[in-house]
Amino acid sequence: MADDFELDTDDLTRRMDGAIANLRTEFASLRTGRASASMLEPVMVDAYGAMTPINQVGTVNVPEPRMVTVNVWDKGLVGKVEKAIRESGLGINPQLNGTIIMLPIPELNEERRRELTKVAGHYAENARVSIRNLRRDGMDQIKKAKADGLSEDDQKFWENEVQELTNTYIAKVDQALETKQEEIMQV
């Protein structure tokens, strides 16, 4: 019988934490007018026949507030790294200096800031969808247990637990989005 049913809330929590961590990674890739090594994390380079993260083909540094440098280890990959940065959609124009690629970070204008807040909103919505999908998975487990004889009181208890967990994580997404939008709009 399902009287001994216990939903694995730790698993749901872990998976929702993963959605929040993914959101933070996506937010880190958004430029806010300040140089950050994490802004290059999503850039993949076609190196040695495979798509490789940029930090595995060179050293990413931030020598000054408006400059990111990539010191490419293999001279033969400099062109490919430069091309990957150009095509990444970051809006940065790389400058070559031997095996070092310099990325001057321009000031963000008002229009670009608004675009970035929309992108941040899109990332947040994707995180909310992920969390809601995890909620649905939890509710499906409860429904399955109900079919196996879980009492209605227990069903309500577990549904409330899952909903509270979902609400908590949706609030975390909303808070992260608000913080990121403030950071982007800050002049």
TrEMBL record:
It comes from the Bacteria. GO terms for molecular function: ribosomal large subunit binding. Its main location: cytoplasm. Residues 23-185 form the Ribosome recycling factor domain. It comes from Thalassococcus profundi. Belongs to the RRF family. Keywords: Cytoplasm, Protein biosynthesis. CDD domains: RRF. Gene3D superfamilies: 3.30.1360.40, Ribosome-recycling factor. GO terms for biological process: cytoplasmic translational termination. It holds the Pfam family RRF. It is found in: Cytoplasm. Responsible for the release of ribosomes from messenger RNA at the termination of protein biosynthesis. May increase the efficiency of translation by recycling ribosomes from one round of translation to another. The lineage of its organism: Bacteria, Pseudomonadati, Pseudomonadota, Alphaproteobacteria, Rhodobacterales. This is Ribosome-recycling factor. GO terms for cellular component: cytosol.
